[in-house]
Structure formats: C-alpha cells, structure tokens
Specification:
D-Maltodextrin-Binding Protein, domain 2; globular; 2 domains; five-stranded mixed sheet; 10 strands; alpha/beta
Length: 249
C-alpha cells in the first residue's frame, strides 16, 4: 500500500510540472534567455517555457488587452508597477537585474570622446530603441540630453521597436547604436571588441535600469510559474545575469 502511495505521489508531482508556461520577456533579455531556460529545465525538465519577446511597453499593452502571458519580465519597473496597480499582476514587482547601456559600431570608433562622438559628421545614423515603449530607449535619450548632445544629433536617430531590434539596425543599417550591454555577451557578438567597436555609456548620464518581474493573474496559482519566478530571483539565475553583463542587486 505504501509503495502504491509513493508511486501515485511521484506521478502527481511529475504531472504538476509537465505543462507549458507562457512568459513575456523584454527584448534585452533575449540574449540570456536561452541560458536561463536551460538552467531552469535542469530542475524542471518536463516544463516547456514559451517565450514572447518584445518591448516592455508593447508587451504591457498586450497583457492589458488579454494576452495569455502568465509572467512578465520587464526592462524597467514602470510597467510591472502599472500592472500591479491595475491588479493584472498578482505579485508586487521585484527587481531581478539591473541593465546598462553601451555604444556599438561595426566600425572602429574613438569612444574616449563619449557622447561627443555622436556629433562626428561620419556618423549619419544612430540606432535607438523607441523611448515611448522601450525603457532602454528612454534611458538612451535621457543620456543624450544629460550629455547636452540630443539637440545636435536627434535628426540622425533611427528608432527601432525594441532594444533587440536596435542591435540588428546597428550591425546592418546605422553607423552606431545604443544597445543593452547584455547583447554584447552573446556568442554571436564576439567579433565586436570593447574599446574598438563598443564601450559602456557613462551610467551617471541615465537613471539606473531596474528590471522588474511579476506573476500575472493568468497564472491561476500555476506551480510551474511560481517555480520559474523563484528561479529568476535565485542564485543560479543571478550568475547567468552577471555573465551577460547585468548588475544583480
């Protein structure tokens, strides 16, 4: 009888963690998300993690319009806080990582000039994420304004929908771009060298990019969502975020 109970218990535990969880993820996390999924699946191999990437603003709009996401990893705290206020998020927003900005160019640049570099006549197009929907884009414009170069270079700006799309623009269509530092730790970006092709933007020029996570009401007390949520806030995920250039508080 005891053996039967143990077998039944094991079967129930497997069935509880054998579904698909739907996660909305800010574009800047796209470079780390595969590593995060792999690490999570070491503990929960039967859970399929379905990821939708986009700008935080657009994902929030989708969530408010009934998109079936169960957990949201935003690029800032503004959107999770709004969802929590509207009772669409059922957990208080917490910071899972702190992002940072970097300049990137496929050509060699003199990054010692800082933001003044953008005024160079050889730079005619600058890729920036849409500041209305992408927190990294908002931080970029803030940095430009604080460096007193925005009015001089705003006509050069080419806006992308998300910070991940900004990387694509930067390596294919513009002279320089403002990207999430995390993107530069992707294996695909190894050809670009620090100090030659990219450099960090002075963090004093923009408000710290605190990235927030919330569980959404669609989760319906889903144990797998809670497990993924706890994982993202845990030590194993923190190590991965650090490896991708994030600060972990």
């Amino acid at each position: 009888m005891l053996k039967k109970l143990i077998v039944v218990s094991l079967l129930l535990s497997v069935s509880v963690f054998a579904g698909t969880i739907k996660i909305a993820v800010a574009g800047n996390v796209s470079y780390a998300i595969d590593n995060l999924k792999k690490e999570f699946n070491k503990s929960y191999p039967n859970t399929k993690v379905q990821i939708t990437l986009g700008s935080s603003g657009k994902l929030t709009a989708q969530i408010k319009n009934g998109a079936p996401y169960e957990l949201f990893m935003s690029a800032n705290m503004k959107y999770p806080n709004a969802l929590y206020k509207d009772k669409i998020a059922i957990t208080k927003p917490l910071i899972y990582a702190q992002g940072s900005l970097a300049y990137l160019s496929i050509k060699k640049q003199d990054f010692q000039k800082g933001m003044e570099l953008l005024k160079n006549i050889k730079i005619s197009k600058i890729a920036v994420a849409n500041p209305k929907t992408a927190p990294y884009g908002k931080a970029t414009v803030e940095a430009m304004k604080n460096a007193k170069v925005y009015s001089d270079v705003k006509k050069k700006i080419v806006y992308a929908e998300s910070i991940s799309q900004t990387v694509s623009y930067t390596v294919t269509a513009t002279d320089i771009g403002f990207v999430a530092k995390s993107s530069l730790y992707s294996p695909k970006m190894k050809e670009f060298k620090k100090g030659i092709n990219w450099s960090e933007v002075n963090p004093k020029l923009y408000t710290p990019i605190n990235q927030g996570i919330v569980i959404l009401k669609n989760s319906k007390n889903n144990a797998e969502i809670k497990a993924f949520y706890d994982f993202i806030l845990g030590e194993k995920a923190k190590k991965i975020f650090k490896d991708f250039g994030y600060l972990v508080l």
